[in-house]
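Hi Prof. W.,

I finally got the DNA-binding Lrp family transcriptional regulator prediction working! I wasn't sure whether to trim anything, so I left the full sequence exactly as given:
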Amino acid sequence: MNLDLLSRQLIDRFQHGMPLCPEPYKEMARILGCREAQVMACLDAMDQAGALSRIGPVFEHRRAGASTLAAFAVPAERLQQVAECVSQYHEVNHNYAREHFYNLWFVLTGPDRPHIERVLEALENETGLVPLDLPMLTAYRIDLGFALGEGP
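And this is what came out:
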């Protein structure tokens, strides 16, 4: 996608730090000197083109509960069925297939570690597969951003 000026400004200015207010898109428009409808249309166009992966906050998960990265080694013929089983849990943020012995990976979040363990146990009981449980031991912050040179 060839990004126009407003798209580049939105990415440069707001990929780290959207306004924390009741009307963030209106505030983004005010900061960039345009209308809220233009911001929304621009974000929608970038989303439709596959240029955005998500718009939303990143939380310090340990302040909000517990999480773990988990994986299953799923026989190929059961991958879709197991992925659907995993996705039915509201504790699952996302899951994805990988070309590896452990071929179905997912992130679980919950209010505390015992809750996460109960979900993993339920998944094991439902699928007959033993989950690989990889809770984070140390957090490493990588402030990954892409300056496009068109921000204010």
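The chain has a mean pLDDT of 88. Does that look reasonable to you?

Thanks,
D.
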